Fold:
Amino acid sequence: MNEEFDAEKFRILVDRAHAAHDDMQIDKTLDLLEEAYNMHQEPELNHFVTAVLLDDGQNQLAQQIADEFVDSYANDRQLAEQYLAIAFNNRNYLQAREFALSTRWSDEFTTIIGYEEHQGKIELGETIQTIARHFWHLSDQDVATQQARIDEAEHLPLADYLKGAKFVLRDPFLHPIVRVTVLNRLRRLQVNEPIIMHWLRDTEITVNPSELVEFEEQPAFQAILQILNEHANNSDVAVNEAVLAGLRLTLLQTYPLVDKVVTDPASWVQATIAEVSGDTDIDEPNQQREWRLELQKLAMDLLA
Structure:
């Protein structure tokens, strides 16, 4: 987005796009909108662009652009219905549900989404079964394929996704990041029931996704961020960025029990920075050090 865009030219382009749209000149409308949108992005224009793309059947592009300002669709009934129409055309049922939960009409929209899911199963029953089967058996594949199948599972109705997610979360052969990714999806969908999850060191825990705090808001991770921010004032920027990226990946594996692993945030940060700098002589609680080294190895296994 160019903050110094030509506002007059922008407005002329938008007005011409509206005129072309009124004359049902879709190609011309889209050409004008593309030029205007490349010049300056704003919610009102975003809504117009996605409406035209929706009418033109360019559903995937409409979804991509709508998601750039997704929150702006949530407070207006007509815009909310427009967003849902885009999601339905892309069979993005979970995305539709997550969006619906952010609106004032969540109960009504949830009923509509349930109907759309039912229709989808009638029209694409075999495809949905295949996607579900792939989702249930993630550990049979490499990491890249697992991620592709998780993305593909976004097209599942909630009941089918939840069924597969329960299997995925108890699969001990999956990398912790994969299980955490699925758990976080259930959290965002506000699934309100106890779910058993295979955590670390072959332990199982029971969690209610709707009651979880997102990873970035976990107290231990917040404490680590504060310590890093204080350290950033007198440290190399590149080192801090590398440390933060490594810490985030390492600790994400412990979700939702970050606090159980990080008992001394300060020494965890100091030890991580020291390792980046080639120093290993850091005073750190033994149990926490064992966790940190174990998690770092798991993270490296994921990147290998």
